[in-house]
Design brief:
- The protein is 9% helix and 38% strand.
- The chain has two helices and 13 strands; from the N terminus they run E-E-E-E-E-E-E-H-E-E-E-E-E-E-H.
- Strand 5 and strand 6 form a beta hairpin.
- It has one domain.
- The chain is mostly beta strands.
- It holds the Pfam family PNGase_F-II_N.
- InterPro entries: GLPGLI.
- This is GLPGLI family protein.
């Protein structure tokens, strides 16, 4: 079973939009030292929490990805991202009856539980497209898991700001991002420093970047 890093996160949603924020800033696992061939490597937590913003009316999903500290705004289409298969398995989460659904998404198989008692077609991270709010999702390889631990319902319609509104027209598609990533990966595969060292970037994170 892979090592697990727990990260607190918050999903805010209404009928129109949803925003998901991962609290990397207060996670001590992002400050650590390790000894490499070229000396000590210090990994420091980011200066901003990553946010995923969904426009539920247009099925657009926006988030930022980085390649060697250069950030790209990605625009995804929620209507084609997930092809869910519903099962007749149910479980209770936080007092809500939840139905099981499964999907394959960018290199991993996932199982999710959603409730129609909260009629928002969204969920944590990029997940969505089910007839209710997703309260739990996990990859079947054990790498990725999100479980709701608290739900707050408000009668008033919350205003949720789009953090990418001013730069939305600069967004690129996932396919365009992958093309850039693959080109950088190949460049680094062929790179050798004067000291004989090499550099690399991962072939996958939660999503697969490079098919091996």
């Amino acid at each position: 079973m892979p090592n697990v890093t727990e990260i607190n996160s918050t999903l805010i949603a209404n009928n129109n939009v949803a925003a998901y924020e991962m609290d990397f800033l207060n996670n001590s696992n992002f400050v650590r030292e390790s000894d490499g061939e070229q000396g000590t490597i210090l990994a420091i937590r980011p200066t901003k929490n990553p946010i995923i913003f969904k426009d539920l009316k247009t099925d657009k999903v926006f988030n930022k990805e980085n390649i060697m500290s250069k950030f790209y705004l990605i625009e995804d289409d929620l209507s084609v991202m997930f092809n869910w298969t519903l099962s007749q398995n149910y479980k209770e989460i936080l007092g809500y009856k939840c139905q099981e659904a499964t999907t394959h998404y960018r290199g991993r198989d996932y199982k999710a539980y959603f409730t129609t008692e909260i009629p928002f077609s969204t969920g944590p991270w990029k997940f969505g497209g089910l007839p209710g709010l997703i309260l739990k999702t996990e990859s079947l390889d054990g790498v990725f898991k999100i479980v709701a631990n608290k739900i707050e319902l408000k009668n008033s319609q919350s205003t949720i700001e789009n953090p990418f509104e001013s730069t939305q027209n600069e967004a690129i598609s996932w396919d365009e991002f992958i093309e850039i990533y693959q080109n950088k990966y190949l460049d680094l595969q062929n790179y050798r420093s004067p000291a004989g060292g090499s550099m690399s970037i991962p072939t996958k994170n939660i999503e697969t970047y490079i098919k091996e």
